[in-house]
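thread: overnight batch results

M.L. [08:02]
morning all. the overnight job finished for the chain we discussed friday. pasting input first so we're all looking at the same thing
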Amino acid sequence: EVHAGHTGKAAAPRSLDRQSSVAHVDQAFYRALITKEADTWKLAEFLPADRTLPKILDLVGKAYSVTFREVEPSQTTARLLSGWHKSVRIYEVTDGPPLPAGVAPAGQTKGKLGFVYMNLYQRTSLLGRPAVDLAGAQLLCGGHAFLSMNFAEPPMGQGKLLNPEEVVAMTHELGHAVHMLCHQGSPQEFDDLPLDVLELPSTLAETIALQPSCMMQYAGHYASGGPPSDSLVRSCQRDVHFFVRYL
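M.L. [08:03]
and the structure it wrote out:
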């Protein structure tokens, strides 16, 4: 192909078969990056939100010896009176580990720690602006923690499939929520805690959730219900230097 320049002279032919080269040492990196991205979305098929969320709550409850119980479902009239949007899930949190279905608590009644209000999906106002400005976990007042996850809502008529990073984010914020409900001081005193103290419960929760044995407890295919393969589960594991690099 020949192009004429502004002087009217013919420019040098442009090669059409010229290819950019990638260093040999970089090929393995890019191949691993693409493979990991594909595995991430493949693993999402095993994380349907409607079945995964209760199991995540159970997992975090066992880790911190608390129980999450959903109250005021969105379809009840009580929700209209409370003022909370129908997309917000409300959980009462009590002291003591969750019990198997059908097993009644023995002895003393569990003490109430408070409530967690979980807003899973992004919401916009009539003007197209975010309807919720809060991000992550917020202690509204003593005994009341709000979680704004800002996940992308699924298409109409389809169920939400969580990717591993969304599971990590959810368990991270639930760790914050349990910490907030157990804190005896004011919201300002909670915010003034050292950073390592603030982040320890949440980081521990997400680390537990990523353990292969724990993932097998809540991951199941959205259609068949079968567990993911060991190789697929291990594809999303972090190496020992993860927190050194990113925290």
